[in-house]
Write a structure and sequence with these properties.
alpha/beta; 5-stranded parallel β-sheet; two-stranded antiparallel sheet; globular
Length: 267
C-alpha cells in the first residue's frame, strides 16, 4: 500500500475527530453525581441500626456485622449504630404529632445525631445499598401512642430515604416481642406491634423479624428471665443474626422471608 502524504494524513485525522465528536454527541447525558446507584451495584453496603433499648442492647460485632461481612466482604460493609433506651419515635421523626394536642418541640433531635454519624461514616464513599434497621416502639406503647405509630414510622422511613437520597432504601423492622400481649402494663403494646408489621408489609423494600422467643433465658447479668421487656444474652445475638439475614435478603432481592402472620402468636 502506498504511503500517504502529510495532506492525506491531516485529512484522515480530521475525519477521525469528526467521527468521535458525532459519537460523543449521541451519548446519553452522564448521571447526576447525587443520583443513588441501583441496589446491589458497585459500592459499599451501608447498614443503619437505630431505636431504643433493645437496639441499644444489640452488639453488632457479636452477630450482625460478621453475617453481613460474610455476605459482602469486610471492605464492602459500613455499620452505623445509634440507639437510646426508653425513647419514643418522636425523638427520630421530625413531623411527629400526637392523636390530640400539639407536638413537642424536640421532635427529631436523636435523628439529627444519627444522621451526623451516618454522614461522617460515608463521606466520599459510593454506596451500593442503604438498609435501615429499626427496633423501637416500647415507649410509644407505654405512652399509648399506638394510634399514630404507623403514620409516624412511615414518615420516619420516608425521612431517612429523602435525607440520604435513597428512594431504594431497604428497611428491616424488629416487631415488639410477646412481653405484654394482654396490654396490661403497656396499653398499646399489641397495637404498636401490629402496626409495625403493617408498615413492613406495605413498604416495597421492607421486612420484619420476630422477637417473641428472644426474651427468655438468662440475661447478661446472669438472671433468668421469661417474657421480659428486654432480651436474653443469647436473644440479642439471635436478633443480630435475624436482622442481618433479612437485610441481606432485601439487598439481594430474595423472596419475602418475613415471619408468619402475627395473629399466630397473639393471645
Amino acid at each position: 500500500m502506498r504511503a500517504i502524504g502529510k495532506r492525506g494524513l491531516a485529512l484522515w485525522c480530521t475525519m477521525i475527530r469528526t467521527l468521535i465528536a458525532a459519537l460523543v454527541i449521541g451519548l446519553p447525558p452522564a448521571a447526576n453525581a447525587l443520583d443513588p446507584p441501583p441496589s446491589g451495584g458497585e459500592g459499599k453496603h451501608l447498614f443503619i441500626l437505630s431505636g431504643q433499648s433493645n437496639m441499644a442492647g444489640l452488639r453488632p460485632p457479636e452477630s450482625f456485622t460478621p453475617a453481613v461481612v460474610a455476605a459482602f466482604g469486610k471492605s464492602e460493609v459500613i455499620v452505623v449504630k445509634d440507639a437510646h433506651g426508653g425513647q419514643p419515635i418522636r425523638r427520630w421523626y421530625k413531623k411527629w404529632k400526637p392523636a390530640k394536642g400539639d407536638p413537642p418541640k424536640n421532635n427529631g433531635d436523636l435523628y439529627l445525631r444519627l444522621l451526623t454519624k451516618v454522614q461522617t461514616a460515608t463521606r466520599g464513599v459510593k454506596l451500593a445499598s442503604v438498609t435501615f434497621v429499626w427496633m423501637q416502639g416500647e415507649r410509644d406503647a407505654r405512652e399509648r401512642h399506638g394510634a399514630v405509630y404507623a403514620d409516624s414510622l412511615k414518615g420516619l422511613l420516608q425521612q431517612v430515604g429523602d435525607d440520604l437520597q435513597r428512594p431504594d432504601l431497604n428497611v428491616v423492622i424488629g416487631r415488639l416481642s410477646d412481653f405484654d400481649l394482654a396490654n396490661k402494663r403497656y396499653g398499646h403494646w399489641t397495637m404498636v406491634r401490629e402496626n409495625q408489621v403493617a408498615v413492613a408489609t406495605s413498604h416495597p423494600r421492607a421486612g420484619w423479624v420476630d422477637t417473641d422467643d428472644l426474651n427468655d433465658g438468662r440475661n447478661r447479668k446472669g438472671k433468668i428471665i421469661k417474657n421480659d421487656l428486654h432480651y436474653s444474652a443469647e436473644g440479642y445475638k439471635e436478633l443480630g443474626k435475624r436482622f442481618a439475614a433479612r437485610a441481606i435478603g432485601l439487598i439481594r432481592g430474595d423472596s419475602d422471608e418475613s415471619p408468619a402472620d402475627p395473629k399466630e402468636t397473639s393471645p
